[in-house]
Amino acid sequence: MNFLLTNDDGVDAPGIATLAQVCEGLGRAVILAPVEHLSGCSHQATTSRGLELKELAPNRYALDGAPVDCTRIGLYHAAPETQWVLSGINAGGNMGHDVYLSGTVAAAREACLLGKPAIAFSQYIQRRPVDWDMAGRWTRHVLEMLLERPPAPGTFWNVNLPQPGEVASAVPDCVFCDIDPHPLPLNYELEDGRLHYRARYRDRMQAAGRDVALCFAGHITISQIGLHSIPPQYLGDTGRADAEA
């Protein structure tokens, strides 16, 4: 199995290092991630300038672009033999409306657009430090399961790991669910003449049976996200819609 790994936290982030360890024994993993932290960049892509790709080590690259750029460059240049695109493990949850803001999720969405199965992994953080060893064990459990259950054409998997509980050895229940429909709470504070966004992540509304409520309750949530504007039958190996359709 050939994996392409990316994220929006940057190539040196602990989450992507953990994800690379997760892939050991499952196949070959190529890391291609942004040079810098780009959390919240959504589906941004670079088209107005050249992109610099640096090989940091065998199968490990840094790109001065966005997560979507990393997916594109990975699939078309650095790792064209890729069979699965894995994005993460993000330091922070990406559930509900987060999926529209997240660069982690966007990298997986772009892979889906280009006809590759993809999974976005995120670790919800209620308190620090993050236990990346445990996140890795849980991710391995989910990855092995989802490799046997590829997403339907025109969709990708979005996985959120809960805050670890008191039982360090337990693997939480995995629940397949829809994303929460409620918007994030908005809070801006005026400081030094500027408005600063202050997240109140835990205060968000929670629809029963959706990813936010389930992840907050300690479950691993797995959501299948679709590309609703493009019918799945028009997504092929290149992910481009048929011009004659």
Describe the structure.
The protein has five helices and eleven strands. It has 245 residues and is of the alpha/beta class. It has a single domain, classed as Survival protein SurE-like phosphatase/nucleotidase (Stationary-phase Survival Protein Sure Homolog, Chain: A, 3-Layer(aba) Sandwich), CATH 3.40.1210.10. The strands form two sheets. A nine-stranded mixed beta sheet has the order 3-4-2-1-5-6-7-11-8, sandwiched between helices. The protein has a two-stranded antiparallel ribbon with strand order 9-10. Helix 4 (132-147) links the parallel strand 6 (118-123) and strand 7. It is globular and about 40 Å long.
Order of helical and strand elements:
EHEEEHEHEHEEEEHE
Largest sheet: 9 strands, mixed
Overall geometry comes to globular
| Overall average residue pLDDT | 90
Number of domains: 1
Number of helices: 5
Strand content: 15-25%
CATH class: Alpha Beta
Strand order of the largest sheet: 3-4-2-1-5-6-7-11-8
Return Rg in Å.
17 Å
* CATH structural architecture: 3-Layer(aba) Sandwich
Q: Write down the CATH topology.
A: Stationary-phase Survival Protein Sure Homolog, Chain: A
- Low-confidence stretches are 237-245
Helix/strand structural class: alpha/beta
